[in-house]
Amino acid sequence: MERLRFASVWLGGCAGCHMSFLDLDEFLLDLAGRVEVVYSPIADLKTYPENVDLCLVEGAICNVDHVELAHQIRARTKIVVSFGDCAVTANVPAMRNVLGAKNADNVLQRAYVEAAEANPVKPALDGVLPPLLPKVVPLHQLIKVDHCLPGCPPPADRIKALLLHLLDAAPALSGSQLKFG
Ligand code: SF4
Is the pLDDT of residue 58 over 70? Predict the structure, then answer.
């Protein structure tokens, strides 16, 4: 049987959704026999490939690199899943939005100057830090998303239920499986 080309992506998130993915435990072995991992922070591949069948996207859209990668994902992937509350609603990363239009500058000032214990300076060289967007947005505000997997993080059994739905046409998520937080 040809294995499905599988990717996962880490945008503006804490990696908790990927940690929950690893909690799939022995189901990961089943999955390994059915998918080929072609891109993931777990595999540390550098370029998002062509012809991906399924991609789980963790995190909100926070900076210009996220915008570019999200468009690549959509152009090269059949099924895109918003993986966790940050991708679905923007969640924690969007807390900076309440700071207003200048929030990107405020965030950098707070992180690199006010909170610094040594060398309080904002990184200024091109390519060191991707410019932040004025506003953090969920994935579906930038690209079409095929499925949403809520939870912060989604529990492993919920991730498994979605994967079985996509791989084996098992029932779609419903009821408490669609809970946020
Ligand atoms: S949804 Fe929760 S666990 Fe997942 S990246 Fe966001 S904050 Fe982390």
Answer: yes
